[in-house]
Amino acid sequence: MRLRSALRLTLLAAAVLATATAVSFAQDTAPLPKVRLIATGGTISNRDGGRLTAEELIKSMPGLDRYVRPEYEQFANVASGSLTLEQWLELSRRINQLFKDDADLAGVVVTSGTDTLEETAYFLDLTVKFDRPVVVVGSMRNPSTLGYEGAANLLEGFRVAADPASRGKGVLVVLNDEINAAREVTKTDALRLQTFQTRGYGVLGVVDRDRVVYYRDVIRRHTAASEFDVFAIKELPRVDVILAYQGAPGDLIESAVDHGAKGIVIAGAGAGATSGTQSEGINYALDKGAIVVIGTRTGSGRVAARRGPVPARFGGQTLTDEQRARFARRLSAEDLAPVKARILLMLALTKTQDPAEIQRMFEEY
Ligand code: DGL
Fold first, then answer.
1. Stated pTM of the model
2. 120 contact partners, CB below 8 Å, separation of at least 6
3. Which of 11, 302, 337, 361 is most exposed, with the fewest beta carbons within 10 Å of its own?
4. 8 A C-beta contact, residue 218 and residue 181
């Protein structure tokens, strides 16, 4: 009897072992995720005597093929501030097309200069309509500098893009072992390696030696849930950002509108205050039909949107229809940084001129 149950146990153990081996064998032979690098330039490529190409960036990462099947292409090789808005549209169309044409493509890594990286990343966050990861990576030290961290950042970007946990999180920014959301991240220091920070909310996750770890999600609308279609946009309208500071002249706002701005974002003091003659400038812009969005220059916090309809009276006076229309076109950026509010406003204006609709977007994205 005892012998029979020992035999049964041995057989059971052998079966469990065989199954486990089969599972681990299946995992070992599953193809690695395919991740494509789209290189646009920036310090990460800016080697003395000649910029690194996409191919050279791929070769700079030892052990890359332990994580992914890499592909690459050169989109541009310039400083981030040299990318034009037309190139933004082109880049977004390219990424959308790649995902559409290749169901096997797990993710995309985009290299960018760090100066305006957060803007490019947020533009992609609002316009790449897939939930597969797009990871934007840069570096603070160039390849000719001792302590160049570009290859390490790039490898981390590939690991993040290859990780199924990165799906549906919107466009991600990876530098210095940290994962931040494109919507929230800001370059906070001109030189330091830990420059990319999400003030107020913190990182989404980290890239450690053993694995990629997430701690939270962005619950705002982005990527696959976006209503913006780059294939339907020929050109982005002009929207300018104007800083509030003591005694600021409103004629800068007037000049922007006279030069064709369809929208103005005010980087207001505190919770959106202006100074000097800026309120006259804002009224001029509103009277010309521009949308004015008020944000904060503080680096975090929100400027709350007005609730409900435009009031019939304001400051003890009954408003005329014209005054009410002007009032309606003055909107709030909520917690978006002014440079990102500008991107959302540009995209919003390609779809509608209705201020209530545009304010809705600022509350959803
Ligand atoms: N500071 C870099 C950037 O944001 C520019 C360096 C370069 O020339 O690539 O793009």
1. 0.91
2. 40, 80, 83, 88, 91, 110, 112, 136
3. 11
4. yes
Compute, in angstroms, the gap from residue 264 CA to the centroid of ligand 1: 27
Q: Taking the CB of residue 74, how many other CB atoms lie within 10 A of it?
A: 16
Residues 250 and 280 sit within 8 Å (Cβ to Cβ): yes
- 342 CA → ligand 1 middle, Å: 22
Query: Could you read off the pLDDT of 243-271 as tens digits, one per residue?
Result: 999 999 999 999 999 999 999 999 999 99
From the list 43, 223, 274, 296, the catalytic residue is 43
Single-letter code of the amino acid located at 209: R
Q: What is the per-residue pLDDT across 75-126, written as a single tens digit (0 to 9) for each? A: 999 999 999 999 999 999 999 999 999 999 999 999 999 999 999 999 999 9
Q: Is 80 in the pocket of ligand 1 (CB under 6 A)?
A: yes
- Using a 6 Å cutoff on CB, does residue 41 contact ligand 1? yes
